[in-house]
Structures are given as C-alpha cells and as structure tokens.
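job 3f2a | input accepted
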Amino acid sequence: MARKRGPFDAVQFTRESAERIAGVVRQAELTPPAASPLTFAKRFDDRHPKQVRAATFSGAWPTGSSKIVTFKYAPTATVNAFNFSWPITLTAYSNEDCIVGKEGTNWWLVVPKLEARTAVFVTQTTASTYCSSTASQIVVTGVTTSGITITYLTDVSVTAALDTASCAIQIGVTKTTASEDLVKAITHTTQTVTIVTSTKTAIMVLATTPSSFLRLRVP
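job 3f2a | predicted structure (219 res):
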C-alpha cells in the first residue's frame, strides 16, 4: 500500500512542467496590475451614531442661539440644543413640544410644533386708473339780459302851403319810424362742477385662491 502524500512532502516537476510554470509567472509579472476592486466601507463613524428625540422647551428660541431642552419621555434628562433655522421669538412658549437630533456630539433643533392655516393668495391682478385729486370750477349755464332795441326812420313826408295873407310858404314834415330788437332777452345762471386734476394707476386684485400653509404654533 502506497504512503499518502503529506502537505510538507517535496513536489517534483518535469522539465516541461517547470518551463510552463515559469512562463506563466513571468507573464503575470509583466502584466500591469488591474484596478482595485470595489469596496463598501462604512461612511459614518459608529462611535457617534445619529439620534432623534422628542423634547420640550420654554420661552423664545431665536435662530443662532442655544437652549436647554428636556427630553419628553425622560423629564430629568436635558441637553443643550442649537437652533439653526427656526425663528421662535415669542416668549410665551411653555413646555412646547419639539424634535431635536444629535449628530456627532452636538444636538440641534430639527423641527418645532407647527400648525396648519388657510390663507387667500392673489392669482390674478389688473391695472386700473383712479382720480387722485380734484378741483372746483364755476361755469356759466345761462345768460340773462333785457335785450337791445333800435328805432330807425322809415319814411319822411314833406308838405308846402302858401299863406296869402302873410305871403309865406308853410312847410310841413311827417316822419315815420320803426323799431327792431338787436338782442333778445337772455337768462343766465352758474353752477359749480368738480373736475379731475390728476390720476394714478393702481394694481387691483382680479382673482384669488385659498391655500394652506404651515407656521409656528402661536402660544
């Protein structure tokens, strides 16, 4: 029975096998290295995991400031959180709910308590001209006068008679006249009117639509 070969026993090659192995090794040494394989390493440090917690705060909390908040389900646990983006300026907040998050070793205000409201927004406008100032002016609406009448001569008759007693000639003249109205009687009155002295152009609301939005809860 042949002895079973052990892992540390010497291995013998023929000349042809040795030359073939040597050729493969030489070709592998001359070939440029391939690109490194893809790796999927962790992107976040496990030593500082992110957290999100429900908490409460009181008083104003303007942006760019820090505040001590109390974890909602651990009333004795508090942290100092930084408000990066919510303009909480009212001082009447008391035990107001909020969500805070932890990144690394820092706590941040994620979102305060919000409420929904409905507002009317303008969807279409139109330009309109309106009177911006006025003035009063008296105007004549009628004229009253007694009229003008002229009288003119229309005919003249001349007569002559001999007075034999005095040896004189008596001359007689008869005039005929007529009249004509040059201006008839006119009645005039006045009244006060309001005139526009300047105008302006305004943008008027032509159409609206209701829409809902979120805002900070007013305490």
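job 3f2a | Strands lie at 51-57, 65-71, 78-83, 96-103, 106-112, 114-140, 148-163, 168-183, 190-216.
job 3f2a | closed
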